[in-house]
Design brief:
Helices cover 28% and strands 34% of the residues. The protein has 225 residues and is an alpha+beta fold. The strands form four sheets. Strands 1, 4, 5, 6, 7, 8 and 13 form a seven-stranded antiparallel beta sheet that branches. It has a four-stranded antiparallel beta sheet with strand order 12-9-14-15, covered by helices on one side.
Length: 225
């Protein structure tokens, strides 16, 4: 009587082990790919959320810009300096120190790729009030709002300078214009809108009309022209 061999040969065990190790290697490789994609997806989601949050905070700071009167020598003017590459102003809703107004600088900055980034800097007025135009301020916070832009340009909407025109009834005719430079200390006025052109996308911010109220605080001193 011939007995049947029910065991495995060495070759069969080696082949089975090779197949098993191949399947394990493929599974590990697939898991690594999935894990990498998962982390990348999470990073992209976190980055997108942070950028959206930055846009929201920046928009609040911009909408909080107010006309602010300061002294300069024997006169007073508005603390606002605008150029094509950026501006300096006062906001009552800053990004960082939210319990006090702040002076902010918003400007374009060149990057290493030949483009530009939109940058926000902040100096809180909590510990020192802003009184003099030439006052030194601690700009201790900086935030890149939007990176990698091909162009960034700033413009300012203000009342036209020059002689005041009146209607037949004696009402003042107010004409406005968009300009690329505005110095509130020289013009004794503040823009009523700000415009930022981000590579073809225009972003506008309105500023509350408080110039007359701010000037009235200095009317009794004779400092306002």
């Amino acid at each position: 009587e011939v007995k049947s061999d029910k065991g495995f040969t060495l070759i069969e065990l080696l082949v089975s082990a090779a197949i098993l190790f191949t399947l394990l290697a493929l599974a590990m490789f697939g898991y690594q790919l999935f894990s990498q994609q998962w982390h990348k997806s999470n990073q992209r989601t976190e980055l997108a959320y942070q950028q959206l949050r930055n846009y929201e905070l920046f928009s609040q700071a911009m909408h909080g810009i107010i006309p602010y009167v300061v002294r300069e020598k024997q006169s007073v003017g508005f603390y606002f300096l605008g150029r094509e590459q950026g501006f300096t102003a006062v906001t009552q809703t800053p990004i960082y120190n939210t319990d006090a107004p702040a002076v902010i600088r918003v400007f374009r900055e060149s990057d290493t790729n030949g483009g530009f980034r939109l940058v926000y800097e902040e100096a809180s007025l909590k510990s020192q009030p802003l009184v003099e135009a030439g006052q030194t301020l601690p700009f201790s916070h900086r935030l890149v709002i939007i990176p990698q832009l091909t162009s960034i340009e700033f413009s300012y909407h203000r009342q036209k300078l020059g002689d005041v025109e009146l209607t037949e009834q004696g009402d003042v005719i107010r004409e406005f214009e968009w300009v690329q430079t505005h110095d509130g200390l020289i013009t004794k006025s503040h823009p009523n809108q700000l415009g930022i052109n981000l590579a073809g996308f225009s972003w506008f911010f309105s500023i509350p009309e408080r110039q007359a109220i701010m000037k009235s605080r200095y009317a009794d001193t004779g400092e306002v022209d």
